[in-house]
Amino acid sequence: MTDLTSGLWELLLQGVWVTVQLTVFSAALGAFVAFVVGVARTNRLWIVRFVSGLYMEIFRGTSALVLMFWMFFVLPVAFGWQLVPMWAAVLALGLSYGAYGSEIVRGALAAVAPAQQEAGIALSFSPWQRLTKISLPQAWPEMIPPANNLLIELLKGTALVSVLGVGDITFGASLVRNALGESAPVYTIILVMYFILAFLLTRVMRAVERKAKAGIGQAPTKSEGMRKPDIEQATAISRSSQGGAA
Amino acid sequence: MQWDWSAVGDFMPRFWDGVLVTLEALVLGSLIAFALGLVWAMAQRSPLKAVRWPVTAITEFIRNTPLLVQLFFLFYVLPEWSVTLSALTTGIIGLGLHYSTYTAEVYRAGIEGVPEGQWEACTALSMPRGRTWSAVILPQAIRRVVPALGNYVIAMLKDSPQIAAIGALEMLGQARQFTATSFQPTEPITVIGIAFIVIAYPASLLTRALERRLVR
């Protein structure tokens, strides 16, 4: 731990900034994709449901790292689109984690009592008004705890970009490792850095959850240290919204 | 977009080698994750605080840090401690260790789902602790969590290309090597991308079917 000069620390800290940027931008894109796809999956038209379901199955079915390789190496050769590495990474992360997020949005929308929708119809709200004024405000607080888990998965996923040469924490660590000729200190340090980032993310999401629940007149759930992974929505499947495994 | 079927044909021998290595990593990694996860879950219910606390801290730490960095840690740091393992072995241990912290939570949920009366009945029958676990609690707990464990196997499949970063020749590793000599990235990377969907989708249907059968 003692051999790290200030120059090497700077490499790591620059990496932290890149990782934070990657997380924020990918989360923004992912949230957008999640809402569009998640809402589309509740659409009345079967073709809209089918296309959004297909998107979800494809992007959730394949590996994020393979998708990233595809964006980096296949897009330029096959289509002539050369993306800046940072944006290719954001695109790959946002599109794949957005697909996971769409299940959260769909599940939370499905959990809103059907009578709420019916009341909206009875009052002749338009479908858009029903969505934005009735369903989403009530579904939104339900989405935050699983979204927190997904954000931590996303934060961990940003480490993949180092394989493609984007200068995040993990990339900085490989440079430091080469300079130092020693691996244990630097990799211990960056593992702790990632853990701290994940912890901060959990704190922020807790605050958002409290605010969201207060907005619809609910008390927040009891606070725990880190959030436990949600087994039901895990990372893969489980369409059934009832309490299954846990 | 140009698509060269002959490149697909040239890639096929390497592709099948890669599929085998991916499946090997997946099976062995899952076995480690299932076994170690159970150990974590039972340790977290230990009456001793000195056991519970460190196990909770370690599993939280491993679960909230990236698998890729853990793989680098194992691959570069273990040799410094004079433990030298092949890239594939390191990768399998890394996958198994990382996912054991997830399966631990799955088991925990399953164990908590066993009614309190079952524990009390064991106490009333003065069953030894080992037998309480093996004959009463675990058979009821594990049955319900099999589908959830299956979900994590699928998640592990999708994380398995990360072991290519330390040089294991699974599907992605093979695709990279092929690209390095043929300069045709389009075909191999697309093929393995589709291969992941082709393996993962039926597997997810299988866990859904298991969920209907086992979780009642």
Oligomer classification: heterodimer
Kindly report the CATH topology of chain B. Answer: MetI-like fold
Number of DSSP-assigned strands of chain B: 0
Q: Which secondary-structure class do the elements of chain B indicate?
A: mainly alpha
Please state the average pLDDT score of chain B. Answer: 90
Describe this structure in words.
Chain B: It is a multi-pass membrane protein. The complex is a heterodimer of chains A (246) and B (216). With 246 residues, chain A is mainly alpha-helical. Chain A is 72% helix and 0% strand. Chain A contains eight helices and no strands. Chain A starts with 5 loop residues before the first helix and ends in a 31-residue tail after the last helix. Chain B is mainly α. The termini of chain B are far apart. Chain B is built from eight helices and no strands. The radius of gyration of chain B is 21 Å and the shape is elongated. Classes of the chains: A mainly alpha (246), B mainly alpha (216).
